[in-house]
Amino acid sequence: MNAQIAESSASQTTEPDTAALGRARLRRLVLTGFMGAGKTTVGRLLAERLGWDFLDLDALIEARTGLAVPSIFAEHGERHFRKLESQALAAALGRSNIVLALGGGTPEVLTNRLLLEQTPATATVFLDAPFSTLYDRCMMQAINPNSTARPNLADPAAAQARFLARQPLYRRLARYTIDTAELSTEETVAALLARVAAPPARRP
Ligand code: S3P
Fold it and tell me: What is the CATH number of the domain that holds 82?
């Protein structure tokens, strides 16, 4: 059993320490990671556990524009999508007691990284996994007729190049990183709550 699983199974036996969020003065948890990382699924469950609101950045953009994400890409291009994304992010970060799932490309934009770093009481969590795992998860999701297409996954080689370029950005932005490769949604939420509840590591 690796350390990550050990941590998550241990934490499953205890109630999530929501008071720890207050002690850590957190009012926003933001989930980042590549497509297929589980940001939306994990975010929904995490928000439920905390009694907070769940927000999904892609869904906010769709609600604000009345257009599905693939249509925005097809009709207006990725640059325009990124502008809408920054606007939706700024609006979302104005709210408190939220779990916010970013889009996989949100951290590519400097303005977005600054917004996330400079909003008080906000911690970003990186849901990490290898590219092959993420790609397989996305392919499995794509067979669901209710799933939204992912334009930036259409070309697998280009998607892998984006993955490699984004990894350092996800890492730098995150206060917490959870390796989700071997974890279920439940286990990921448990591992994340355990990390947030743990006292900060003391510097040597
Ligand atoms: C994108 C990821 C998508 C969505 C858009 C672009 C990307 O969000 O924002 O299709 O560039 O990685 P998910 O990560 O929720 O799939």
Answer: 3.40.50.300
Q: Determine the residue of 30, 31, 35 to mutate for testing ligand 1's pocket, defined as the one with the most ligand atoms within 8 A of the Cβ atom.
A: 35
Number of domains in the chain: 1
Residues near ligand 1 with C-beta < 6 Å?
35, 39, 58, 69, 103-105, 150-152
pTM metric for this prediction: 0.90
Q: Does an H or E element contain 163, and which? A: helix 156-173
| Residue where the block lists tokens 């799933």 | 147
- Per-residue pLDDT reduced to its tens digit, 26-49: 999 999 999 999 999 999 999 999
96: helix, strand or coil: coil
Query: Taking all residues of the chain, what is their mean pLDDT, rounded to a whole number?
Result: 90
**Gap between the Cα atoms of 109 and 116, Å rounded:** 11
